[in-house]
Amino acid sequence: MLQEWPWLEFGCLLPALGALLLFRVRRAEHARRMASWIGSATLAATLIAWRNWELQPQHVPAWSISAWLGVPRALELDALSTPLVPLAALLFLLTALATPMTKVRRFSFARMLASEALLLATLACREPWGVVALLAASTVPPWFELRARHRPTRVYALHMGLFVVLLAGGWAAVNAAGPHGDVPWWTWLPVLLAVAVRSGIVPLHCWAADLFDRATFGTALLTLIPMPGAYAAIRLLLPAAPEWVLHAMAAVSLATALYAAGMALVQTEARRFFCYVCLSHSALVLAGLEAVTPLSLTGALCVWLSAQLGLAGFGLALRMLEARHGRLLFTSFHGLYDNTPTLAACFLLAGLASVGFPGTFGFLGSELLIDSTVHGFPYIGLAAVLVAALNGIAVLMAYFRLFGGTRHSMGVALGMRFRERFAVLALLAAIMGGGLYPQGGIVDRHRASRSLLQVRHEIQASRALFVKRALRKGEN
Amino acid sequence: MNLDALARPLALTIVSAPACLVLLLGGACLVERPLSERAASRAAGLANGVGLMATLALTVLLLGQGRGRLAVDVGQWVALAEYQFHVKLLADRLSLAMAALSFLLCGVVGAFAARYLHREPGYQRFFVLYAVFMLGMAVTSLAGTIETLFAGWELVGLSSALLVAFFHERPAPVYNGLRVWVVYRLADAALLTAAVVLHHVRGHGDFEVLLGSAAWPSGRTLLAAPHCLTVGLLLVGTAAGKSALVPFSGWLPRAMEGPTPSSAVFYGALSVHLGAFLLLRFAPLLERAPLVCWLVVALGLITAGFAALAARVQADIKSALAFGSLTQVGLIVAEIGLGLRWLALAHLIGHACLRTLQFVRAPNLIHDYHTLENAVGEHPDHLGRSSPAPGPVRLWWYRFALERGYLDSLLTDYVARPVLSVLRFCDRMEHAWTNFLAGSRSLPSDRLLPPPLHMDQPS
Prior knowledge:
Helix content of chain B: over 70%
Strand content of chain B: under 5%
Oligomer: heterodimer
Mean pLDDT of chain A: 89
Largest sheet of chain A: none
Shape of chain A: globular
Helix content of chain A: over 70%
Low-confidence stretches of chain B: 451-459
Strand content of chain A: under 5%
Largest sheet of chain B: 2 strands, antiparallel
Order of helices and strands of chain A: HHHHHHHHHHHHHHHHHHHH
Order of helices and strands of chain B: HHEEHHHHHHHHHHHHHHHHH
Low-confidence stretches of chain A: none
Number of helices of chain A: 20
Structural class of chain A: mainly alpha
Number of strands of chain B: 2
Structural class of chain B: mainly alpha
Radius of gyration of chain A: 22 Å
Largest interface: A-B, 73 and 65 residues
Distance between the termini of chain B: 59 Å
Number of strands of chain A: 0
Mean pLDDT of chain B: 88
C-alpha cells in the first residue's frame, strides 16, 4: 500500500506548499511551530520513500503528482540520493526546532521551507537540466533574505549570477556537442567554474563568508552545509567529464581545503570561523571525487555525510550560543561552560565528529578516503591528514574561546531548552551511532559509488566507440 | 578450552571496561543526569578493576602456555569487497605490560582523585575525561594495527588537552591546553602520515605484517631500508610531540596547569611515555634504519640533558617534577635508540610508578619540608653545593634553564607566528575584496572587532 504513493514527491511538495502558507502567517512563534510540523511530515515522507526504494529500487508508484499535472516524472531516488534526501529534510527540521525564541522574528520560516523544497528536489533529480534549473532557483531565497534585512546583496548576487550563467551556459555548450560528441576541452571549463563558485573554491569563495556575515545564521547554515556544489559535480561532471577536469577540480579543491582550514585558525568571529570550516570540508569532499575508484568515491561520499552531520550539530550549537549571547567574537573569552555544560559538550563532540575523530562516522570515512587514494593519489591522503589536523585545532580553539577562559556571570538561565537539546542530541546520536556501527552506512555509499562509476564507464565506453566509428568513417 | 577461545573475551574486556565507563559517565552528563560523586568514583574503580584483572588473567594465560604473543582478531568493523577494517588486538609482553601499568596507575589516581576533587565543580567532567583517557590507553596498548593505535592515540590526546584546561575559568590553563593540543595534533598528523606511507608500501597497517610475527622484543620487518627511514622519521616526530622531546618540550610544564591527579597520571606517568611506547612497538622497523636509531639516541640524550638543567631552576614542585620526568623519558628514548628494549621497558614502568607517587605527594610537599627542617634543624637548601662553573657561564646556563631552553619562543617566533601572519594577511585581503565588491565600508563582523587576541599569545 505504502509503495503505491509518491512519497518523494510529497516530500518535495509539502515544504513548497508550507512555504506558500507561511508567507501569510504573521505570528512568528506560530510560523515556527507550523514549520516544525511540516518539516516532520517532510522527513517522514522522505524516509518512507527511502524505505520503498530499498525494498524495490525499480518500482514506480501507481500514481504520481507529476503525471497528474501532466508533466514528465522528474524526481526519483537512486543509490546516491537515498540518504541525502532524508538527511537534508532532517537538517531543515532540526534547524526549525532549534530556532530559539530570540531568533524567530528574524528568521523566515517560509523562505526556509522554500529552500528545503528546492534542495530536496535538486537532490532527487537526476536529469542534468533539472539539476541546473533547481540549483539556479535555490540561489534566490537567500538573496531575498538579504534584501529583507536591508543588507548589501552585491557580493552574493555577483557570485550567484556568475554561477547560474556559467552553469547554464556551460551545460548548454557541453550538450551542444551531442551525447557522444567529442567536446572541446574548454566547454567543460564553465561547468567546472560553476561548481567551484557554488562550493566556495578559492578565490571564488568570498560570497560564503559574506553570506554568513550578513544573512541569518540559519539561512547561511542551510545554504552551505548540504554541499549542493558537490552534488552538481557528481551529477554533471563525474559521469562524462574528462580526467583532466577532475584532476583540476581536485587540485583547486585540495588547495582550498588547506587554505580554508588555515583561515579558520585566524578568524576573530564565530560565524566566519564556521564558514571556513564548512568550506574546508566541502572542498575535501570535492577533492575525493577525483580519484574515480569505487573506494575513493565511497570515502568521499562518507566524508560528505559525516561532515554534514558533524557540521550541522556544530553549527546549530553555535547558533544557539549566538541566540543567547549575540555575535560571538574570538577576541575575548566568553566562559560559557558553567552556564551551558551540555551545549559545550555537544559543541565539542559535533566539531570533532566533523573532523573525523575516532568513535564518529567521520573517522571511518576519512580512513577510507586516505586508504583508497594512497596508491594512485597519495597527495590527497596527505592533504586530508593536514586538513584534519588544522580543523581539529580550530575546533578546540573555538571551544576554549567560547566556553573557557573566564567565568560568565549572567542573571538569566542560559541552559538548553528541550527542543534544542533534542535537535543536538539527535544529531549526536546519528554521528555516534554511525561511528560505532559504520557498516550499513559505508555499504550504502559503496553501492552509490559503484552505480555512479558504472554510469561514467558506460559513457566513456560509448564515447570511445563513437570516436572509433568516426575515425573509421573518415578513413573510408 | 583452548587459549584463543579464552583470550578473545579477556582482550575484549580490557577494552570494553573503560568503554562502558565512558558511555555511562558521558551519557549521564549529556542527558543532564550526572551520577553522584560516590557512584562515579565507584564506577571508575570497577572499570579499572575489571580491566586490570582481565589484563593480569591474559598475562597469566600467555605465560602459562609459554607463548610470547597472541593476536586477537576482534572482527571486521567494516567489510567491503575491496576494503576491510580489521579491529585487531595484540597481547604480548609490551602491550600487556603497558595495559597493566595503565590500569594500575589509573586506579591509584582515580582513588586519589575521588578525595582530592571532592565537591570540586568539575568532578564529573574530570571522571569523564579520565574514562576517555583510560579507554585511549587501553586501545593504544593493545592495538594490533596502526589504525587501531591511532584511534586510541587520539583519545589520549583529546582527554589530556582538556584536562590541562580543567580549570577553564582562568585564561592560562586554556592557553596551555590549546598549546598542548596543537602539538598533539601535529604529532597525530605525523603518525597518520606514517600509517599512510605504510599502507602505500605494504598495503597493510597490521603489525604482524609490518613487524613480523615473532614475539616482542624480537621481530623483523620486511620493509625496505628507505621505507624504514621515512616511516622511522615520521614516528620519531610523533614520539617527540607526544613525549615532549626537544624541540616540543615546552608543553610539558604547561600541562601542569591541570589538577594534580591528572598531572600525575597523564604527564608524569602514562601520556608522557606513550612516545617511548610507540618507538618500542616499532623497534624492529627502527632497527632497519640506523640513521633513525642514532637520531633517537641523540634526541633522547639532548632532551635528558636539557630537562635535567631546567628541572634545577623551577620554582614550583610540579614543574620541577615535570622536567624530572622528561629527564627520565629522554634516557628511556636513548635506550630504545641503542636497542636496549627490555631495559627501556623496565625503566619506563619503574619511572611511571615512582613519578605517580611523587606527583600525588606533591600537594603535601610543604608539610614534608617542615618535617625535614624540624628533623635536620636548619633549612635544607643550605645543605646543597654551589655550582663550580665560573660566574658568567653559570649565569648564562641559569638563564637558559629558566627560559626552558627558549624552545617555546623559537617555535612561536619562527614557526607559528610566520604562518599565522600570512593567514592574517590573506584574511585582511579577503575583507578588503569583499567590502570592495559589496560597495560598503565594512562587514558587520569588522565593526564588532576590538584589537585581536592571538592564539599564540603567551600565558
